[in-house]
Every structure is written in structure tokens, then in C-alpha cells.
């Protein structure tokens, strides 16, 4: 098998702790396959910003482009003003590397408790994936303020939706729906209020849908979607939505599927023109950093997504199965970060 040349951005807080377990599992699943995993560490995040004022230097971005994939832990710290690292590192990475598919699966594994009443979860279970657009919407930073600090201040954040950007993510969502047993795609938007963008998304789903006649489609306004996510999550198979709606509903999705400690994600460029980046949905959790108590499962599942993206389907499935087996017998006893990584890795050897 080909070697894996990884860029690793461990980041802040619990980032380095969970990334270490992700790499441990990656080593374990590839051991004996002849694959050499090499990882190059890049220090980006609060520490670097505090020391040098740098966020994402051009030279680092250029180097990142040369790797097969990026594994990211978490970025953020209370010592840095809100928005600096988001607008300076995470979003520039997603934009510059054109990660237009932000893939966020929500799956309730056996043995994992959902905060939803059991009858809400059964009989269909929770097993859907959100295809969140990753490069447009209100995230583009197309906004400004007028008369700041006065009683007449006006602040705008313009949501940018291009036909090109919407079409490519919608096509990807259809392809993913087509490949799943249920073949069902729900567009989540708010076309009754956001009429311009909403109609672009709707029309695009209708038009691209003609290429996928065996995928059934549905539409839900985002507010209604939040209701169904907690009252009837079994109805969802693949959801496609814009960047901001996707941000919000994937936190709900993580919560109903056992919590943010289990939620994995991929920032994917399906064209392969630049490396995709895999990261747990959770943040840097500075309150528990350095204690060895963070759950590395979301990072380990992100490693499974990374393997899948690199076409290493078998290894991806083995990692997911090892995590599922670990979750099934986890119980309520607290385990350390490294104990969970060790247990998953042991199942792979
Ligand atoms: C996420 C995060 C980011 C986002 C922030 C940190 C910029 O909330 O990955 O969901 O809004 O996308
Ligand atoms: Mn988020």
C-alpha cells in the first residue's frame, strides 16, 4: 500500500492529547501493511499567536499543500480574542484548501447513551450524515460595520452563495446519498425568508437531482429541522445545507448521537487538488486540558474518515469497528485519554 504523508496540527488545549491517540490508532491499523506513516507537526494556534502574533504564515500553508492529508486537533484559547484564530487559521485553511464538503456523520453506536428518550431513537436509530458547505455562506467574511460604537451602528454579514459552490456540494451530497442504502437526501435551508439563496439551493437540488433519479429528496426549513433532529432523527439519511446552518445543526447532531466527544468531521476537497483536513468537531476544552481525561474518540473516528478519504476503505472500516466495539463495552467507568487510545489500538493488532 502507498505510504501516508500526514500534516499534523495538534493545536491548543486538549488538541495534542487527542491527536496523539489518533496517531496511535493510525499506526496500529497500518502496522504490518507495509505502509509507512510519516507525520510532520505544524505549530499553529494560540501558543504561536501569543509568541509571535502569527496565525497561518504563507510558508506553512504552502507546505501543508504538499501533504496527503491534514489531521487537526483543536485551535483556540481564552488568551486569544474571539475570532482571531477562527478567522486567522481554521477558516483560511478551509478556504485556501477549498474544503467545500464539510462532512459530519451522526451515528448512535450501540452502548452509547443518547439524551433523547429511547422511543425517539428507536426503531430507526440515528445514522445520518450532514454535508455542510464549507467555503461560502456567511463564513466568507463579506460584511462590515458602519458608524461603529454609535447608537446608529449597522453591522452586516453577507451570505455568499454561488451557483458553482452550491452545485458542487449538492452533487457531492447526492453522490453520497446514492451510495447509502436508504438513498435519501434532505435539503435544509430557510427559503421562506432567505429567498434568494434559498431558491438557488432549491433549484440546484431539483436540477442536480435529475442526475440521481433513485435518490429521494425532501426539504426542511432549518428551524423545523432542529425539531425533527430531536423528535424523529431516524428520518434523516443525508442532509445538505449551507455553512452556517450546517454548523448549528451538526452540534445538535453530535449531542443526540452521544455528545461532542464522539463527533468526527472531514473538511474535504473531493477533487484531490489539495489535501483534505480531518478534525474532531469539539474545541480545545481548555478547562480539562493537560489532565489526560479528554475523550479521543472523535479524533480516532476522524482518522477513520481520513483513511476512507485516502481510499483505504478497509482500514477505515476496521478503525470504526474497533471504536464501535470499544464504545459497546465502555460502560460508565471513567477512562483516561490514552487508555481509550490504547484499547482501540489493541483491537487492531
Ligand atoms: C466548527 C467550529 C468552527 C465553525 C469555528 C471554530 C470557526 O464551530 O468547526 O464547527 O464555525 O465552523
Ligand atoms: Mn461548530
UniProtKB/TrEMBL annotation:
Pfam families assigned: Iso_dh
Biological process, per Gene Ontology: L-leucine biosynthetic process
Domain of life: Bacteria
Cofactors demanded by this protein: Mg(2+); Mn(2+)
Positions of the record's site feature: Important for catalysis: 139, 190
GO CC terms of this entry: cytoplasm
Biological role: Catalyzes the oxidation of 3-carboxy-2-hydroxy-4-methylpentanoate (3-isopropylmalate) to 3-carboxy-4-methyl-2-oxopentanoate. The product decarboxylates to 4-methyl-2 oxopentanoate.
Enzyme nomenclature, EC number: 1.1.1.85
Sequence positions that bind substrate: 94, 104, 132, 223
Biological or metabolic pathway of the protein: Amino-acid biosynthesis; L-leucine biosynthesis; L-leucine from 3-methyl-2-oxobutanoate: step 3/4
UniProt enzyme class: oxidoreductase
Protein's recorded name: 3-isopropylmalate dehydrogenase
Ligand binding (Mg(2+)): 223, 247, 251
Alphabetized UniProt keyword annotations: Amino-acid biosynthesis, Branched-chain amino acid biosynthesis, Cytoplasm, Leucine biosynthesis, Magnesium, Manganese, Metal-binding, NAD, Oxidoreductase
SUPFAM superfamilies: Isocitrate/Isopropylmalate dehydrogenase-like
Family, per entry: Belongs to the isocitrate and isopropylmalate dehydrogenases family. LeuB type 2 subfamily.
Lineage: Bacteria, Bacillati, Actinomycetota, Actinomycetes, Micrococcales
Domain Isopropylmalate dehydrogenase-like: 5-344
Catalytic activity: (2R,3S)-3-isopropylmalate + NAD(+) = 4-methyl-2-oxopentanoate + CO2 + NADH
Listed GO MF terms: 3-isopropylmalate dehydrogenase activity; magnesium ion binding; NAD binding
Amino acid at each position: 500500500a502507498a505510504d501516508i504523508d500526514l500534516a499534523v496540527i495538534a493545536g491548543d488545549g486538549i488538541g495534542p492529547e487527542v491527536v496523539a491517540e489518533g496517531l496511535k490508532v493510525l499506526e496500529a491499523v497500518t502496522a504490518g501493511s507495509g505502509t509507512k506513516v510519516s507525520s510532520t507537526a505544524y505549530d499553529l494556534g494560540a501558543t504561536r499567536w501569543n509568541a509571535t502574533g502569527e496565525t497561518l504564515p504563507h510558508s506553512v500553508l504552502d507546505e501543508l499543500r504538499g501533504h496527503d492529508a491534514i489531521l487537526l486537533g483543536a485551535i483556540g484559547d481564552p488568551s486569544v480574542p474571539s475570532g482571531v484564530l477562527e478567522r486567522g487559521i481554521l477558516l483560511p485553511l478551509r478556504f485556501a484548501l477549498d474544503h467545500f464538503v464539510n462532512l459530519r456523520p451522526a451515528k448512535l453506536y450501540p452502548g452509547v447513551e443518547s439524551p433523547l428518550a429511547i422511543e425517539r431513537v428507536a426503531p430507526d436509530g440515528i445514522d445520518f450524515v450532514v454535508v455542510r458547505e464549507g467555503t461560502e455562506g456567511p463564513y466568507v467574511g463579506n460584511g462590515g460595520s458602519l458608524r461603529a460604537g454609535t447608537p446608529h451602528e449597522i453591522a452586516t454579514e453577507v451570505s455568499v452563495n454561488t451557483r458553482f459552490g452550491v452545485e458542487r456540494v449538492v452533487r457531492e451530497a447526492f453522490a453520497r446519498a446514492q451510495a447509502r442504502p436508504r438513498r435519501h437526501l434532505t435539503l435544509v435551508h430557510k427559503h421562506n425568508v432567505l429567498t434568494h439563496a434559498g431558491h438557488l439551493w432549491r433549484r440546484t437540488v431539483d436540477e442536480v437531482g435529475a442526475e440521481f433519479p433513485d435518490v429521494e429528496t425532501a426539504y426542511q426549513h432549518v428551524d423545523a429541522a432542529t425539531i425533527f433532529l430531536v423528535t424523529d432523527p431516524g428520518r434523516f439519511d443525508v442532509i445538505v445545507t449551507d455553512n452556517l446552518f450546517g454548523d448549528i445543526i451538526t452540534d445538535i447532531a453530535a449531542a443526540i448521537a452521544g455528545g461532542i466527544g464522539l463527533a468526527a468531521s472531514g473538511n474535504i476537497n473531493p477533487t484531490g487538488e489539495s489535501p483534505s483536513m480531518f478534525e474532531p468537531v469539539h474545541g480545545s476544552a481548555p478547562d480539562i486540558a493537560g489532565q489526560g481525561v479528554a475523550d479521543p474518540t472523535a479524533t480516532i473516528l476522524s482518522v477513520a474518515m481520513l483513511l476512507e478519504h485516502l481510499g483505504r476503505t478497509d482500514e477505515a472500516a476496521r478503525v470504526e469497528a474497533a471504536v464501535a466495539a470499544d464504545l459497546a463495552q465502555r460502560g460508565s467507568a471513567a477512562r483516561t485519554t490514552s487508555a481509550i487510545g490504547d484499547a482501540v489500538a489493541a483491537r487492531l493488532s
